[in-house]
Amino acid sequence: MLVKGDKIPCYMKSDSLSSCCRVSICEDTVIDANFETVVQAKLLDHVDRDQLAMVEGLSKFTEWTGLMLAKVLVDPKSGFVPMRIANFSDKPAKLYRDTVTGKLETVQLVESHSVGTVKIDNQKNDKMPVI
Fold it and tell me: Choosing a second label site near 78 at 20 to 30 A (CA), which of 40, 50, 60, 105?
């Protein structure tokens, strides 16, 4: 898939749902200078909503607006997802409803195992804690 010059890899599953989709903000939003906020975004394409997914910003959006989007792990069941957007400039930025800001890709859970714990002694010690 190609969205405003960004190549987004998509893979079809046997149920014919895509593993990725475009994401756009739900309402007009002003992000003040040197400020970050979380806005509600909606999914624009058909995607498997029964799996966890990762939302990340499109590079073209960042180039065009100067705004940064944080990667977010989301549950897309409702069709809406949060997007954390930061404005590091000295001027406010206005975003308009339905602006495509990012992409959503489904992820697979990987079983993890605890590798150990850190035990910290309350005594003053210049040595690193033992793991």
Answer: 60
